[in-house]
Amino acid sequence: MQIVLIKEDKYLYDIHSLYKAFYPEQDVKVLLTSDTEKCKEVMDANPDAEISEVDVSVSKNQLKKDTYLKLSEKTGKKLPWGNLTGIRPTRIIMNLIEEGKSDKEIIDHMRNQYCVSDEKIDLSLKIAHREKDILKDIDYKNGYSLYIGIPFCPTTCLYCSFTSYPIGAFSGIVDDYISCLEKEIDYVAEEFKGKTLDTVYIGGGTPTTLEPNQLERLIGYLKDKLDFSKVKEFTVESGRPDSITRDKLKVMKKMGVTRISVNPQTMRDETLKLIGRRHTVDQLVSSFNMAREEGFDNINMDIILGLPGEGASDVAYTMSKIAELAPDDLTVHSLAIKRGSKLAEIMDQTRQRTKNNLSDSNNSETGYLDEINNTVEMMEIASKGARDMGLEPYYLYRQKNISGNFENTGFARKGKAGIYNILINEEVQSIVALGAGTVTKRVYGFDGRIERCDNVKDVKLYMEQVDEMIKRKWKLFL
Ligand code: SF4
Questions:
Q1: pLDDT in tens, 351-408
Q2: Residue pair 445/195 in contact by the 8 Å Cβ criterion
Q3: Which of 28-32, 58-62, 96-100, 343-347 has the lowest mean pLDDT?
Q4: pLDDT in tens, 155-199
Q5: What separation in Å is there between the alpha carbon of 165 and the centre of ligand 1?
Q6: 3-state DSSP assignment of residue 302
Q7: What's the helix, strand, coil split of the chain in %, to 5?
Q8: Atom of ligand 1 nearest to the CA of 159
Q9: Which of 240, 277, 301, 338 to mutate to test the pocket of ligand 1 (most atoms within 8 A of CB)?
Q10: Is the CB of 82 under 6 A from ligand 1?
């Protein structure tokens, strides 16, 4: 364990994130020296902990740089993203471009202030320019985008922390759920009358757990109530191949959906089973081919690096299988151990057992968790594989507790980049979000300030409280 002592209640999150990035396998506690009781309690409980002190009397940027350099020297490690702890490194670069800084000035700044590696500077600079180029034809500051969450999935994936309910047990409430979404759509139609709707994204969960008639009902209502004449992109995440049927694809195509995703995560059947996806690679391939046959010319795929038991050769294999399908857009994720996921729960239990010196060797359910790891080599294989398919990086973001402290990157063919992904990632446009567990964001055009309001996560509570969810949005957009 790492214990970090500070004298003032400042920058806790940044200090914790930096220490965690250098010591991912250890618990990190940041404690205020004035809270003597707490300090004593934690130190007594962890006599082997390494204790250090951080001076928080300097500016935040200085503190992060000093701490990074100190930890880098101590551990002999360099982090690809240096001392950046935020999740949107390209935003910093976008802002610098907007301030009129040259590429050289930006490179120097990222290197000297944040200690970012040359490779990541190059990647994020290219992405920032590409994003600006993609957004230049969109009057995004005066428009808005719409997100609709469908919180049902065929089964729950091991690493999932989204709002997701197994459709088998919840199919009986889907029609009423759609009625609640319709109420929210009525609100949007009134509140945003006369405003340009730029992009629409139906995500989740898995929207294609809806039956064809339910999909038709929802999209039909949307198109009836809202002006779609300027919509540049209409995505429906069809993530789980085990939820895709030809009838659903036909409905989506007929209703004007322009972009879908069919997500493998890995092309190894054994891993799919381990992570609870309950679909096979064959199913993925036939769903993808079916989507092509039905005329979808913008199909995204997601993969995850660092899945249990997978190494570089598995990533290479997955990339070679994906190349055979030639998707238009590929998002490469690093596995994030998210609080609330089954994976985080199992890992906590495993750590606890290890701490108590209880062997895990007989536990076939958790033994593979020792093998969760993402590496530079795996990232390079995925990135090269994407480029070899003719895809270029166009957005990236980082997450907390991401495997190997890497990033998630979206790659796309020219003209196929997901515009919604850029808008939400760069936080440059208001996004109205409907459905259980979704978060609406208002971006104030004049100063870039952002305010949020969320819908409750529990699906039944959401349905009971939908009027209150609408009221929250009214207030936000007053
Ligand atoms: S498909 Fe996505 S939302 Fe559904 S359980 Fe898996 S990770 Fe969660």
A1: 676 666 655 544 545 555 555 678 889 999 999 999 999 999 999 998 776 666 788 9
A2: no
A3: 343-347
A4: 988 888 888 899 999 999 999 999 999 999 999 999 999 999 999
A5: 9
A6: strand
A7: 45, 15, 35
A8: 7
A9: 240
A10: no
Assigned token pair, 387: 């480029």
Q: Whose CA is nearest to atom 2 of ligand 1?
A: 205
Coil, helix or strand at residue 368? helix
CA of 204, closest atom in ligand 1: 3
The Cα-based distances of 172 to 167, 176, 178, 434 in angstroms read 9, 8, 12, 20
Q: Tokens at residue 161, please?
A: 């922390």
Q: From the CA of 327, how far away is ligand 1's center (Å)?
A: 20
Look up tokens 């891993």; give the residue: 271
Pairwise CA distance, residues 224 & 27, whole Å:
52
- pTM of the full predicted structure? 0.89
Closest ligand 1 atom number to CA of residue 163: 3
Tell whether ligand 1 has an atom less than 6 A from the beta carbon of residue 165.
no
The answer to whether residues 85 and 98 touch, using CB atoms and an 8 Å cutoff, is no
Report, in angstroms and rounded to the nearest whole number, the Rg of the chain calculated over CA atoms: 23
Q: Which one, of 120, 108, 157, lies nearest residue 397 by Cα?
A: 120
Question: How far is it, in rounded angstroms, from Cα 359 to Cα 347?
Answer: 14
Mean pLDDT of all residues in the chain?
Answer: 91
